[in-house]
Design goal:
It is a single chain. This protein has 81 residues and is mostly helical. It is built from three helices and no strands. The radius of gyration is 27 Å and the shape is elongated.
């Protein structure tokens, strides 16, 4: 049963009461966390470390590459003058 059908059932059963969104959100979060915990593989730690390293290195790698391209272009222009 989906959350929307649960809400529809709640609203039809109790027309004077608003559906409890906090309980449904908490239940959905608990279900999501349970699913995530069950799908963790044995390489999850390695993946997390590599993802952290990538997030630290990649932005600087692009910056260094752009600076190197600009430097080579400037050296090329200075050499042809």
């Amino acid at each position: 049963m989906t959350t929307l059908s649960n809400l529809a059932d709640l609203s039809s059963a109790h027309p004077l009461h608003a559906p409890d969104f906090v309980s449904t959100d908490t239940a959905a979060l608990a279900s999501h966390m349970s699913h995530c915990a069950s799908t963790r593989s044995r390489f999850f730690g390695l993946h997390a470390v590599l993802e952290s390293a990538h997030s630290l290195i990649f932005p600087r790698m692009v910056t260094v590459a752009v600076i190197a391209v600009i430097a080579v272009a400037l050296l090329g222009m200075a050499g042809t003058v």
